[in-house]
Protein: Membrane protein
Organism: Platysternon megacephalum
Amino acid sequence: MAVEDVNMVIEPRAVTAFIGPSGCGKSTVLRTLNRMHEVIPGAHVKGQVLLDGQDLYAENVDPVRVRRHVGMVFQKPNPFPTMSIRENVLAGVKLNGARLAASDADALVENSLPDVLLMDEPCSALDPISTLAIEDLIQELKEHYTVVIVTHNMQQAARVSDKTGFFNIAGTGKPGKLIEFDNTDKIFSNPAKEDTERYISGRFG
Ligand SMILES: Nc1ncnc2c1ncn2[C@@H]1O[C@H](COP(=O)(O)OP(=O)(O)OP(=O)(O)O)[C@@H](O)[C@H]1O
């Protein structure tokens, strides 16, 4: 079992950060939010993920539809690497021979952004200036979208997020756990759990 005991409310139009040492299950939990873990053979989940009251794991729910609403931002965002993100989004339409007016194409590209954006270490390969540009973008995005971000960078979590979940792992081979989930200010100034305090003050991890 990779991770257990995760219970949280992710606020709409806010940024939620997952922090914690390597292997504690941050990415795994993130991937369960749009059923991405299902692309790994044998991986399964117990429990519920409710989006506007609808369980994403209910029997009649199509995972492809889930991923249209809850999208994953990858470090390498374009499947066709020589094309822009816009061209990547429009590639399917073009391949089907459809002709679009430029304004319709713009609308299609903009509307293809899902309601919830999951970001797994989006800045880990970036220099500090590009990192700040992405952080500014995240702030803009949260006016319209719900953002969940996994980051190893605690300063980044403190800068960009409204809520923070701290995950920890008792030892190799043990499942990770959500230790504390609260307002980011609280987690970084006055956490309730000793483990959180030790982690944010750099005493382990
Ligand atoms: N594809 C996989 N197959 C088997 N086990 C996996 C797989 N992906 C992750 N795990 C295991 O799940 C546990 C949690 O890993 P996960 O990547 O979610 O942690 P993390 O907190 O995101 O770590 P990191 O900060 O290093 O990215 C680890 O024990 C890991 O070995």
